[in-house]
Design goal:
This protein is mostly helical. It contains seven helices and no strands.
C-alpha cells in the first residue's frame, strides 16, 4: 500500500498511463497520416516520434526506481540503510555542516571501495542531504548499474 502513496511511483505511473492513452487515441489518425503523401506523412512520423523521449524517460526512471527498491531491501536486511546523524533543522533536514560531514564519510567509503554499490548508494543519499539532487541521481544510477552486474 505504501508504494501506491509514493509520489515518484504515482508520477511515473501517471505519465505512463497518459502516454499509453495518447498512443491509443492517436494510433488510427497516425496510420491514416502515414498512408498519405508529403506533409501528411511527415505529420504521421511526428505523431509517432514525438512521444518516444517520454517513453524512454519512463522506462529509465522505472528501472532506476525498481533497482533502488531492491537495493533498499538488501541494505535493510543487512542493517546498513543510510542513517544520517547530526544536527538537524526543525523540518528534519541535516544542517549544512552535518550534511557535509555525512558526505565526507560517504565519499571516503566510495574512494576505498569504488566498485561497491552499497558505497555509491550511501554517497547518493549523502548528496541528497547536501541538496545536490543531480549528483544524487547520478550516484544512484551508478549504484544501480553496479547492483545489476553483481546480481
Amino acid at each position: 500500500m505504501k508504494t501506491l502513496r509514493n509520489p515518484a511511483f504515482l508520477t511515473v505511473t501517471t505519465t505512463l498511463v497518459v502516454l499509453l492513452l495518447y498512443y491509443s487515441l492517436v494510433a488510427d489518425q497516425t496510420y491514416s497520416l502515414l498512408r498519405g503523401d508529403g506533409a501528411s506523412r511527415l505529420l504521421g512520423v511526428g505523431a509517432v516520434v514525438l512521444p518516444l523521449p517520454g517513453v524512454l524517460w519512463v522506462i529509465r526512471n522505472w528501472r532506476l526506481g525498481s533497482a533502488v527498491q531492491c537495493m533498499t531491501r538488501v541494505l535493510d536486511r543487512e542493517g546498513r540503510l543510510p542513517i544520517h546523524d547530526g544536527e538537524t533543522f526543525p523540518d528534519g533536514r541535516l544542517t549544512h555542516d552535518a550534511a557535509e560531514a555525512v558526505f565526507e564519510v560517504a565519499k571516503r567509503s566510495v574512494e576505498d571501495r569504488p566498485d561497491d554499490w552499497r558505497a555509491w548508494f550511501h554517497v547518493a543519499y549523502a548528496y541528497a542531504a547536501t541538496a545536490d539532487r543531480s549528483m544524487a541521481r547520478k550516484a544512484l544510477r551508478h549504484a544501480a548499474r553496479l547492483f545489476r552486474t553483481e546480481n
